[in-house]
Design goal:
Layout (H helix, E strand, L loop, with lengths): L21 E2 L2 H12 L4 E3 L4 H9 L4 E2 L1 E2 L9 E6 L12 E3 L3 H12 L6 E5 L3 E2 L1 H6 L1 H4 L8 H6 L4 E5 L3 H16 L6 E5 L1 E3 L16 H6 L3 H9 L5 H14 L8 H12 L5 E3 L2 H25 L22 H22 L3 H30 L2 H22 L4 H8 L5
Parallel strand pairs: 2-10, 9-10, 11-12
Antiparallel strand pairs: 1-3, 4-8, 5-6, 5-7
Helix pairs in contact: 1-2, 1-7, 9-10, 11-12, 11-14, 12-14, 12-15, 13-14, 13-15, 14-15, 15-16
Length: 422
């Protein structure tokens, strides 16, 4: 016989049978299925429609009570009558209410006795975390009160989350929104991949392959990584394995990459795949890309000068009569137009990898590798008209490039664009 013990406290775990609160989800699940079938709720990527139907087609009763110290206490009150023996298993002796005063009124009405003959005891269990989370879209707006915030922000448009909690959280929010608000909490759900380590292994503290975003942003040595694990709650055997895993994955520690490189890398990873194998070396590569953009911007601003005045007309939509564009000017403006089109289309379709590819190619291969190199002669030896055309074109490309990079490289865009592209 094996005596179960807690892995942390080493206390003996004794299973006990206890009455629980349950919710019948069949009707709510059927409504949720129909919303996806009718196209009112869109799951992105659409491959998760099948997962949605699989979970909800056979949606069983949901146990919503938990025996924990924290959480939302279940709003159920046991009614004890002075002339009747109480029984916890008798469902007829319970009432639910927002407050004890409301519960007392319900009990008086239900049992046809005076309040002096009734004593109420609130259930000590708390709601399942997913139940509380399912109320999030409207409970945060002072529901059930019909407040201005509730009218303004419910329903919302888009929810972004991991596909592994499609049923546990997304489906619960949809079911509760339809049941309690009679309206979907959102119309689109974007499901991103699950982040794993560079070898595709699920991140685990005991394996030492967990990547802290702050470590990627600021950088950290191998010794400091070991200290971070030592300060945790791992046992001796798990600690040895974690330190060995860190040494294998990050023999030289994690280099400083910055927030922009991390954001851009994560966006570039977003495909239709279910998993995302995060490689720190790839993020470091995007740090170098950000450095490339920084240097290109410094060169462009140096050529524009402090007294440069932007053209009143947009070069992307019309031509300036006072300048004569060269072939290379027209080519880079065309490439900028293509990058804008590809980026906007990709954003609308949630194809973030294609979006980052369009931005990366424009900055690195079109602007830096070709146009800046080709116009260096113009800025130093060209005619006045050629230089005027080149400066206006360069300004336009810089303006377009910084606007395109803004969602993923916010810090860089603000640093480079402040005071020049207002």
């Amino acid at each position: 016989m094996v005596v179960p013990t807690c892995s942390r406290s080493k206390d003996i775990v004794e299973p006990l049978l206890k009455p629980q609160w349950w919710v019948n989800c069949k009707d709510m699940a059927a409504r949720s299925i129909k919303k996806v079938q009718d196209g009112e709720l869109k799951l992105i990527p659409s491959q998760f429609d099948k997962t949605w139907y699989t979970w909800l087609d056979d949606c069983r009763d949901w146990c919503i009570s938990r025996q924990l110290w924290w959480g939302h206490q279940i709003p159920a009150y046991k009614v004890n009558l002075s002339n009747k023996e109480s029984n916890d298993l008798d469902n007829s002796m319970w009432v639910s209410a927002h407050s004890e005063e409301e519960a007392m009124k319900k009990a008086v009405e239900k049992f046809k006795v005076s309040a002096s003959e009734i004593s109420l005891v609130r259930d000590g269990d708390v709601l399942d975390t997913w139940f509380s989370s399912g109320l999030y879209p409207f409970s945060t707006m002072s529901w059930p009160d019909n407040t201005v915030d509730l009218k303004t922000f419910y329903p919302n448009n888009v929810l972004e989350t991991g596909h592994d909690i499609l049923f546990f959280w997304v489906a619960r929010m949809v079911m509760m929104g339809l049941e309690l608000m009679d309206e979907l909490p959102f119309t689109e759900v974007y499901l991103h991949p699950i982040i794993r380590d560079a070898h595709g292994i699920k991140m685990s503290k005991s394996l030492g392959n967990v990547v802290d975003p702050l470590h990627i942003v600021s950088g950290i040595s191998l010794e400091e990584l070991h200290k971070a694990v030592d300060n945790g709650y791992l046992g001796e055997k798990e600690l040895i394995r974690a330190r060995a895993g860190q040494k294998q994955l990050y023999p030289n520690g994690i280099p400083e990459c910055g927030t922009d490189a991390l954001r851009f890398a994560l966006c570039s990873y977003l495909t239709l795949a279910r998993d995302l194998n995060l490689d720190v070396l790839r993020i470091e590569g995007y740090r170098k890309f950000c450095n490339k953009m920084w240097n290109a911007t410094k060169f462009a601003l140096m050529q524009l000068g402090d007294n440069y005045t932007a053209p009143k007309s947009d070069l992307m939509t019309c031509k300036l009569e006072t300048t004569q564009f060269s072939t290379i000017d027209k080519w880079i403006l065309h490439r900028a137009a293509v990058a804008i089109s590809d980026t906007n289309t990709s954003f609308k379709e949630y194809q973030f990898q294609q979006c980052t590819t369009a931005i990366y190619n424009f900055w690195l291969y079109d602007l830096c590798d070709v146009y800046l190199e080709a116009t260096k002669r113009v800025f130093y030896k060209g005619t006045e008209k050629e230089q005027e055309a080149a400066t206006h074109t360069l300004y336009t490309c810089l303006d377009v490039g910084l606007r395109l990079i803004h969602p993923s490289c916010l810090s860089y865009q603000r640093s480079c664009g402040r005071g020049y592209l207002d």
